[in-house]
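Please go through this protein, sequence plus structure tokens, and consider how the sequence yields the tokens. Keep your notes short.
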Amino acid sequence: MIGKIRIFLALSLVVVGSLILVPLQILSMKTGLWRETLILRIWHRLIIRALGMRIHVKGTLSNQRPLLVASNHVSWTDIMVLGSMVDVTFIARADMAGWPLIGMLSKLQRTVFIERERKRSSGDQASEIASRMAKGDAMVLFAEGSTSDGNMILPFKSTLFGAASIAISEGAAEKVFIQPVAIVYTRLHGVPLGRRHRPIAAWIGDEDLMPHLKVLMAEGGLDVEVYFGEAVAFSKGSSRKETARLMESQVRDMVQAALADPRPSR
């Protein structure tokens, strides 16, 4: 019964909030009366509140530009977690554009959709990302290429760092800064998450979205920690593979630190 009440209240908050914020975001995109990220951050915070999540932050987003943020990926909620705190733009797989609610939100924040299976289009997609970074957008790359269960980090795909190379080779920037970020779901109702309860937070592979959303709304009370590492410079001659391994190693260390000693819930 409590779960059903939570779902009703969460859905009501999201629906009412969206009816107000979506038109404002469209107006912002068409007129430029205010920063597009202003409404988006409010919208993300609304979703976080509806899901009952508490965010704990260590470090800050780098102010160096152009900036590519290399993050691990646990769930579709990662977008809301980061978007509620900092002004960033996301790089997402192409099929997300058709998802209910998430697809609409993605389009309203000018997400760059990439088709990883179509190698012919990868160059154009990387060029678009490079162009956006050169204009000052901080681009978030979920470098594993897929979601994990949150207990481990999948290998970072070096090909996904191609946008940094293109930004330099096309003369858009002399160097690109790449910042590692770890997103870790640590507690449920104040109790540390173990492997048994990890699926509540994690959204893995081709799992259907709506059942996972229902579980999150019914449970509530998730704590998530976000660690911002130190940005490193990627310049002409830098190796994508070495950079990918470095980012993977730093994100893994931050994830393990958060899991080993999760912050108290508040």
Remarks:
- The chain has a mean pLDDT of 86.
